[in-house]
Amino acid sequence: MHDQNIYDNEVFFEGYRKLREQPSAANHLVEKPALFSLCPNLSGKRVLDLGCGYGENCREFLHLGASHVTGLDLSEKMLQIAKAENDAERISFVRMSMSDLSALDGTFDVVFSSLAVHYVEDFDQLLAQIHRLLADGGIFLFSQEHPFTTALRKGPRWSQNEDGTINHYNLSDYGIPGIRTTTWIVDGVIKYHRTFSDIVNALSTAGFQLEQMLEPLPGADILAQYPVYQKCYHKPDFLLVRAKKCCV
Amino acid sequence: MHDQNIYDNEVFFEGYRKLREQPSAANHLVEKPALFSLCPNLSGKRVLDLGCGYGENCREFLHLGASHVTGLDLSEKMLQIAKAENDAERISFVRMSMSDLSALDGTFDVVFSSLAVHYVEDFDQLLAQIHRLLADGGIFLFSQEHPFTTALRKGPRWSQNEDGTINHYNLSDYGIPGIRTTTWIVDGVIKYHRTFSDIVNALSTAGFQLEQMLEPLPGADILAQYPVYQKCYHKPDFLLVRAKKCCV
């Protein structure tokens, strides 16, 4: 079990903060709108946010009517910022690893997770815990790095034409699930690659019905401002899934 | 509506026949075993096979206990061979396009389709017809070319190292669904690209629960005999889906 806490690494943390604060970050432009487009009605709902980071989404869930939000993260630094910037009476922040939720109590109507499940090695166990924590008919809504992104064990990721435009994405090792040690801000960041069928079958086996899947792409307005995102039409950045708890 | 009947093109048909009869064909080695691994119990079941081709699978479904099998194909040439080689008392062959099944009567417990749905432009309409033809709780089991295969609008598909081994797959235009005019045996073969999320959402919207998804890969025994298939670990050849009819 790799209980990675890269977000408490000083260098990573500062680099990540700068990256996330850029208005051009794909998280803001593409992932977040897609996540909220799949959001069920939160009015009066108990919400759990796995890998809540700065807690921005926790606060947004309250605005959308949630009765209570629990934000969970492994990183002490993240939770300090969350408490300083996004605390509220009906939000609780909990420090715990997503890799083992067995100590978490409570029942939730909606479980969210934004760009965190690819850090978890044992997806089956995570889904079993989420299933346990959800009320009947409850929703699990998550985003993750796209499987084409997590697949690679070596670079370069993109092939360019002579004029600098992207020609294609260099897809390799998609069919080999498992650990990936990558460089992202710092060396040695550990993620886990799962294929589409791995993800779909794990959800089905854990007792979830897959309701909707998105591989969101930047629209014309975003492309006009940031032409670099044209390459996402070769290889999307994100995968989002909304699944409903059903029988096991 | 493109009601393509490429299988009645003489040149295509002969080329296809030679290709399929090779023992090294990926259909025999990878797709067919994967399809039958997902097959529900057929004992006493009414089966429909969409794009039945030579009718080999129809006969196999009878052996697996089906009470009756309807094999449907648009190609007169294919159906001639099917009737000559795989006819049986409890098999009916029907000439009809998968693009419009509205004239087809009957109720089926299982609908199969092997490597044919990527020829159909309107997937939503196809799924609506299959939903209509299935009994409650009935199963739709299909294989298709992998979305990484259908994505490309230009070649080359693979990047090789200097020693001739495959380095990666040149993935492009994955995020742009729609028509693809490709060369496969002959020029001008028309297929339709759909992303994973297109496929998953179409099934969900049509009233199917996705039970299992496979992107099958050749095992060690196949690789030992045909090392060329190592490249499938970068990019699988096939996608298979088993879905159950539920409420709309």
Helix content of chain A: 25-40%
CATH architecture descriptor text of chain A: 3-Layer(aba) Sandwich
- CATH-derived topology of chain A: Rossmann fold
Rg of chain A over CA atoms, rounded to whole Å, is 18 Å
How many E strands of chain A?
A: 11
- What is the string of helix and strand elements of chain A? HHEHEHEEHEHEEEEHEHE
| Amount of beta strand of chain A | 25-35%
Number of helices of chain A: 8
Strand order of the largest sheet of chain A: 3-2-1-4-5-11-10
Report the top-level CATH class of chain A: Alpha Beta
- Which spans of chain A have pLDDT < 50 for at least 5 consecutive residues? none
Provide a concise account of the structure shown.
Chain A has 248 residues and is α/β, with parallel strands linked by helices.
What features would you describe in this structure?
The structure is a homodimer of 248-residue chains. The first copy, chain A, has helices at 10-21, 26-37, 56-63, 76-86, 123-133, 147-151, 196-206, 220-225; strands at 46-50, 68-73, 91-95, 108-114, 134-145, 158-160, 166-171, 178-184, 186-193, 208-214, 238-245. Chain A is of the alpha/beta class. Chain A has one domain: Rossmann fold, CATH 3.40.50.150. In chain A, the strands form 3 sheets. A 7-stranded mixed β-sheet of chain A has the order 3-2-1-4-5-11-10, sandwiched between helices. In chain A, strands 6-7 form a two-stranded antiparallel ribbon. Chain A has a two-stranded antiparallel sheet with strand order 8-9. Chain A is globular, with a radius of gyration of 18 Å. The mean pLDDT of chain A is 93. Chain A binds chain B through residues 148, 159, 167-176, 195-197, 200-201, 204, 209-215, 217, 232-236, 239, and chain B through 148, 159, 167-176, 195-197, 200-201, 204, 209-215, 217, 232-236, 239.
